[in-house]
């Protein structure tokens, strides 16, 4: 099997060129490609460069407008709403998070809804962005077009993977970042398993008849995802559906471009909170540090080398992969290469494996 | 086995009398007893009247001040902090939720921390209270004194049960209420299992060596709780620890009364959000109704009679138990009776079983 291991900058450049070739301005193309590569760096390949061909297809189908820039459509006091204008979700998410942070600085807490946003990418990135600006962050995503998950006790899918995330700044190190799909696995993890020709662990998916299975192909043949932790993940998923869609008004949006739009009624709620109002921010961060230190001091259980706090695996992966390079499965690399050549890039534009 | 089934009002009256006998003003005693009985009505016996002897013991130990009333200690724009003044947590929680709602009405979103609060009771009750006032609600509880849960990958407990909850108003019916411990089971559920002499399902607890077990007695002999859904429940628990304790400053509180105070460094964060800013509130509630209706239409999986949305089991239980009465296990009723007689109530003050 050939070695498909690349320097992160080389993949970012490739992604940028693909999106530019498809009509994105340079700055937008670079921002989106950078987010995808950072997802690979943090270990979340499901949200990484394997999305390049998917995004390219959506641009060609007219569903994603590569040159569109998001805008704040309305705001009142500590609340705002951002329209992604059917451009790349990464831009809409950043604007929404930044607007929530701006409101948190003025009022102590701010909440911003996002609509017309397409795929938002890795939620943890926004939570890091909130913490980098000194704020606590929350995000809930709902109304995802593809009904992928069964409700607890149900046999047919009616919910998306509805991810949620929380970020919290910590003194002297990376923030705590909790970021997960409310299903037992994210849809993107199934794409990764399929690309690697691996089965899934039990308790993740059901087949088209609603019966438990571990076969990825059963999932693609009309199967569905199970909620994480039975009624608990289901409850969070319903909350995300309500907060991301009903609260923001994403369900009432009817101007999605392209045929059979995928994310036409999806939306997200970003909340930012100033950690320096109830007590000085440095005391908040200091106590956060004591909490993560205390948790990491716990002796590991059988099968673990040590206890990691949420966000720590991503930071460790980022350091390791920045040094060693990002490795892509054969199928994923072939799809990216074909996509790049298909939009007019030449063989010499493709990065050399390292 | 004798029948210990009581009318809800009779148990509320009994609880009120016990707390009054221990020094609570009538209105406070009734509010707290009412919350406990409502927890039984909703099916959450772990947060119900079996807490009466526990609360009574904490009052006698000086840890709970039965006559204390909570106060808003500081507020700035959309943020506030409530001190429970070491009184009953139910009063502190209500004030904090109401203050968050007041801020949501003014700014669109409001966040209020709570410290010095003792046991807050059932979180779902606050979420119903937010929805009754037309708002979306969130709560995160952290810093609970008793280290009960192991971190994901760890062998020793260092986190509390750290519950979280979300409430969302729905047109024409009860709100969606998501309310759970971030551990696989709540500590209170173990109290219920012990009272009923039942084992727990696998995946809930470990023994004192960190090994999986289903025996309640292993838990009480130095065991611990597992997080719900492995790293997902663990992530939520860490977030709750940070939000409930580090953000509110609960860790810095050092004036807890009584010896070996149990909840001295615990705190909670309540957030309320006005669902009528991004779109008209009636449209938000109408779409929420469509979402819950859509979920309930899903055909049930094997082993389920139908799909229920979060908050629905509680509403159905409340109707059933209001009619049929609240049944208590023998141990629980005996402890309550002894407690009542111990504070000076007479046999004729005890409710007759129905």
Give your account of this protein's structure:
The structure is a homodimer of 354-residue chains. The first copy, chain A, has a single domain (5-183, 227-283, 310-349), classed as Malate/L-lactate/L-sulpholactate dehydrogenase, NADPH binding domain (Ribosomal Protein S8, Chain: A, domain 1, 2-Layer Sandwich). Helix content of chain A is 40%, strand content 16%. Chain A contains eleven helices and twelve strands. Chain A has helices at 8-21, 26-41, 51-60, 89-107, 123-132, 187-195, 216-220, 231-246, 281-296, 312-324, 330-342, and strands at 5-6, 71-76, 79-83, 109-115, 136-142, 164-170, 173-180, 205-206, 212-213, 224-225, 267-273, 326-327. In chain A, the strands form three sheets. In chain A, strands 2-3-4-11-5-6-7 form a seven-stranded mixed beta sheet. In chain A, helix 1 runs antiparallel to helix 2 and helix 4 (89-107) packs parallel to helix 5.
Feature tags:
homodimer; 354 residues; alpha+beta; Ribosomal Protein S8, Chain: A, domain 1; 7-stranded mixed β-sheet; 3-stranded antiparallel β-sheet; 12 strands; 16% strand
Q: Secondary structure elements and their pairing?
A:
The structure is a homodimer of 354-residue chains.
Chain A: E1 5-6, H1 8-21, H2 26-41, H3 51-60, E2 71-76, E3 79-83, H4 89-107, E4 109-115, H5 123-132, E5 136-142, E6 164-170, E7 173-180, H6 187-195, E8 205-206, E9 212-213, H7 216-220, E10 224-225, H8 231-246, E11 267-273, H9 281-296, H10 312-324, E12 326-327, H11 330-342
Parallel strand pairs in A: 3-4
Antiparallel strand pairs in A: 1-12, 2-3, 4-11, 5-6, 5-11, 6-7, 8-9, 8-10
